[in-house]
């Protein structure tokens, strides 16, 4: 038996209630089978909304960067320390997804995979003690919602792809049968019932005043005869036990529940009494800008200052794409639906940080830095004579290439025009450093975790960085290029190879907490030598074998248990020193090369060999501690083909200036000029 209609319920019933599986109002009960829902929805004509969201974004990265309570690039829920902070209602909320002006009902998410048609399928049972379910249950007092405009359940035209809705509270978490499993569902209720929701239909009636609402009538609750536990009457079609462990779970009478259930109107329309004590714990829209004090010396490079902001003018979530700050129009995805053209920008005065501020005590060597090499990694050849005052460390990878590390010291760093001066001058210049979109990223719109600017011949590897001509480069860039040309020449000539002077220089800038993940610098358009000058904060460079070369096969994820296993074996296995199953792989390769086995037999034997091995990450083989003023030269095409590197700085500010040789036949004729330069005697470097 449904409870009798309450004041609040009848009021809400006047507003049309939509649901993902069933479209229904109290007076009009029209059932739509779930698989027809999407088609039905796409035919709907969307009505305009009454207001504007307090903040919005065109992609998920913008949202996650600017909204601290939704710092979550995947999944529907942001949970932190056991609480759900933000919830994203996107395209697929499951059967009976419901949104009206005050209530949202959706699946909790998790435990899902996508079928070939892209529909979310619940893979296994979701339990009440799962992390997601626990954090949403713990968040009963409040939660916040954002919503994707792809989600047409509401039947309204939402202004942007992601729109912040409001504060909500969690009123119910329960389980439904989904296929052969059970999954958690949640009902949210808007906290502020007095104010009209911006997503209400344009011209719709204002919300019912609080004093006229009935907060006492709740949907009826019945005790299950089998498990003796109580469950709310959730569905109009009849009461059923909602305890997944009960034998009467999700049954009306003795039969499994029919498909196309609809919610009990009393369940949709009840409202919780407003409680002034359970207000929101943080602001819906953060105000980072007003709390920034630019006079604090190193604030502009600290972690807090590279978050996104909500534009005070157009309310877009804007990432800090620029070295000096935020520019609303610069963080545009080109998909802005509203044709948003906003001129807001906030560029900070960047007070140069002295290198002394970034040093720890172990980094104040007078002449040579003490070095202790960890035997877990390759031990280099040490040469204190040939390039004094530099110490030269050489790491040789047989048949692959070598890495030369010129270790600087105070004598080198403090010379006029040396690394100390370069570090300050780079900070004074407006180099045009920016975050660029990663060209190959799993999540579209992801920006690099560092700032970059390219000078000289265009270089388009990890990110497509527009290149500025050396002719227009600040003087400090040419001085760095002088040092890098010296290091490249010394390292290559001492190995007896041909020196090709660099014609490109990529400057990377790292604020606190930024880094460059594993990647290689191999590209057919590049010469085999790459030289980097480190300035500012100390950092660690890691070098490891590429995963496929380490394992001998590409990585494949087992669909059954989700574990990583070996996929296709390498066509041409170089069998690098230190790779997995090195002896066995080498023996098979030798047999194949000697013509003792066919290519198919070679591949099959390797497949059998790898079948018993779990996929493993390659451990780093070389670890370099990069200090201010150090130069590193990587030489050898195969080094980039078989190995990859990453660099993780430790403090607030670091620059890495990397020079390469871009082959002229890979450069557009119109761009050739950009790579030409001539250095003055002051810009040249002699190794002192
Ligand atoms: O930050 C560094 O030292 C490394 C830079 C780098 O790997 C690159 O520019 O490709
Ligand atoms: Fe690199």
Automatic annotation (TrEMBL):
InterPro entries, per the entry: AlkB-like, AlkB-like_sf, ALKBH2, Oxoglu/Fe-dep_dioxygenase_dom
SUPFAM superfamilies to which the protein is assigned, alphabetical: Clavaminate synthase-like
One of the GO BP terms on file: DNA alkylation repair
Location of the Fe2OG dioxygenase domain: 501-663
An example molecular function term from Gene Ontology annotations: ferrous iron binding
Binding site for 2-oxoglutarate: 519, 645
Pfam family of the protein (one): 2OG-FeII_Oxy_2
Protein's name according to its UniProt entry: Fe2OG dioxygenase domain-containing protein
Organism annotation: Penicillium bovifimosum
């Amino acid at each position: 038996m449904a409870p009798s209609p309450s004041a609040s319920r009848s009021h809400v019933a006047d507003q049309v209630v939509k649901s993902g599986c069933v479209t229904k109002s109290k007076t009009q009960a029209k059932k739509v089978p779930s698989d027809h829902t999407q088609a039905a929805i796409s035919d709907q004509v969307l009505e305009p909304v009454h207001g504007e969201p307090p903040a919005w974004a065109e992609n998920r990265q913008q949202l996650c960067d600017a909204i601290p309570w939704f710092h979550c690039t995947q999944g529907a829920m942001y949970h932190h320390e056991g609480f759900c902070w933000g919830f994203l209602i996107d395209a697929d909320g499951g059967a009976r997804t419901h949104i009206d002006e005050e209530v949202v009902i959706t699946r909790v998410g998790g435990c899902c995979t996508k079928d070939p048609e892209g529909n979310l399928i619940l893979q296994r049972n979701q339990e009440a003690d799962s992390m997601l379910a626990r954090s949403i249950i713990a968040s009963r007092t409040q939660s916040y919602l954002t919503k994707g405009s792809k989600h047409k359940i509401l039947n309204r035209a939402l202004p942007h792809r992601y729109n912040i809705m409001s504060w909500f509270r969690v009123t119910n978490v329960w389980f439904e049968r989904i296929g052969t499993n059970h999954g958690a569902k949640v009902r949210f209720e808007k906290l502020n019932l007095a104010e009209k929701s911006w997503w209400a239909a344009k011209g719709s009636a204002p919300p019912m005043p609080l004093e006229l609402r009935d907060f006492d009538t709740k949907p009826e609750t019945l005790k299950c005869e089998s498990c003796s536990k109580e469950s709310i009457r959730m569905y109009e079609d009849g009461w059923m036990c909602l305890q997944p462990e009960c034998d009467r779970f999700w049954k009306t009478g003795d039969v499994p529940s029919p498909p196309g259930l609809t919610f009990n109107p009393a369940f949709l329309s009840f409202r919780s009494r407003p409680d002034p004590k359970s207000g929101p714990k943080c602001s819906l829209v953060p105000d980072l800008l007003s709390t920034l004090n630019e006079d604090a010396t190193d604030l502009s490079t600290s972690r807090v200052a590279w978050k996104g902001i909500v534009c005070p003018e157009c309310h877009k979530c804007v990432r800090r794409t620029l070295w000096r700050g935020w520019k609303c129009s610069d963080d545009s995805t080109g998909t802005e639906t509203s044709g948003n053209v906003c001129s807001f920008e906030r560029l900070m005065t960047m007070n140069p940080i002295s290198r002394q501020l970034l040093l720890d005590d172990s980094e104040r060597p007078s002449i040579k830095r003490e070095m202790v090499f960890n035997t877990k990694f390759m031990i280099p050849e040490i040469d204190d004579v040939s390039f004094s005052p530099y110490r030269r460390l050489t790491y040789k990878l047989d048949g692959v290439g070598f890495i030369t590390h010129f270790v600087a010291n105070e004598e080198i760093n403090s010379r006029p025009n040396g690394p100390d001066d370069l570090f300050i001058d780079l900070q004074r210049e407006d180099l045009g450093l920016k975050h660029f979109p990663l060209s190959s990223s799993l999540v579209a719109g992801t920006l690099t975790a560092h700032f970059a600017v390219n000078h000289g011949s265009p270089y388009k590897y990890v990110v497509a960085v527009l290149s500025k001509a050396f002719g227009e480069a600040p003087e400090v860039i040419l001085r760095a290029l002088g040092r890098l040309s010296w290091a490249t020449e010394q390292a290559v000539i001492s190995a007896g190879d041909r020196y090709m002077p660099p014609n490109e220089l990529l400057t990377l800038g790292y604020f606190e907490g930024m880094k460059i993940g594993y990647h290689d610098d191999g590209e057919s358009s590049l010469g085999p030598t790459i030289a980097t000058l480190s300035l500012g904060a100390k950092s660690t460079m890691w070098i490891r074998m590429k995963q496929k070369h380490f394992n001998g096969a590409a990585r494949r994820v087992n669909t059954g248990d989700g574990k990583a296993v070996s996929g296709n074996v390498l066509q041409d296995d170089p069998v690098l020193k230190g790779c997995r199953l090195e002896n066995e792989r080498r023996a098979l390769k030798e047999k194949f090369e000697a013509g003792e086995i066919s290519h198919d037999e070679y591949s099959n034997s390797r497949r059998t060999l790898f079948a018993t091995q779990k996929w493993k990450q390659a451990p780093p083989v070389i670890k370099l501690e990069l200090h201010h003023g150090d130069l590193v030269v990587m030489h050898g095409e195969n080094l980039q083909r078989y190995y990859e590197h990453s660099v993780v700085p430790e403090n607030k500010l670091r620059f890495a200036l990397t020079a390469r040789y871009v082959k002229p036949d890979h450069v557009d004729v119109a761009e050739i000029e950009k790579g030409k330069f001539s250095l003055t005697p002051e810009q040249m470097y002699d190794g002192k």
